[in-house]
Design the sequence.
């Protein structure tokens, strides 16, 4: 599942241009905002039909990972083959009191962080998309793979939010 020797690459991102990737990432905060605008506040605390998170957990989760993703992208762009540690986010919902956070403020923070990431990615030279890092769990990865993981993460949680609000 890789295009380089021993390097894991993102399948979906590998089929899209950097411009398309960045545009997809840039669209997420607006998509989430429109989704939230369509529902009353009490709907945001409702769990997904499968018993999973509601929007009040999803948004802080996205925001917290956005901080990590931004740090990782910066590391890949500025450090020769950086080591990217794995995170166990299972307890963040409790430890960071996701349900107690203001949904609008959390979305605004996520939007600000995503705008910063998109700004950085818009300036990435074409050859830098193949820069590599060593991920604690996934092994050798490229910037393109990392950005594909961000896209996958966005997709997973947007669908989860839609399900919770259905």
Sequence:
């Amino acid at each position: 599942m890789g295009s380089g020797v021993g390097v894991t690459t993102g399948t979906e991102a590998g089929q899209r241009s950097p411009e398309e990737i960045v545009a997809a990432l840039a669209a997420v905060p607006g998509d989430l905002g429109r989704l939230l605008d369509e529902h009353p506040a009490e709907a945001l605390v409702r769990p997904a039909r499968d018993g999973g998170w509601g929007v009040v957990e999803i948004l802080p989760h996205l925001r917290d990972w956005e901080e990590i993703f931004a740090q990782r992208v910066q590391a890949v762009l500025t450090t020769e083959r950086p080591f990217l540690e794995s995170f166990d986010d299972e307890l963040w919902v409790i430890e960071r009191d996701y349900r107690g956070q203001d949904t609008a403020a959390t979305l605004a923070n996520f939007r600000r962080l995503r705008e910063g990431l998109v700004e950085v990615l818009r300036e990435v030279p074409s050859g830098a998309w193949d820069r590599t890092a060593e991920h604690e769990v996934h092994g050798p990865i490229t910037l393109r793979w990392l950005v594909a993981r961000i896209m996958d993460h966005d997709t997973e949680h947007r669908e989860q939010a839609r399900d919770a609000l259905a």
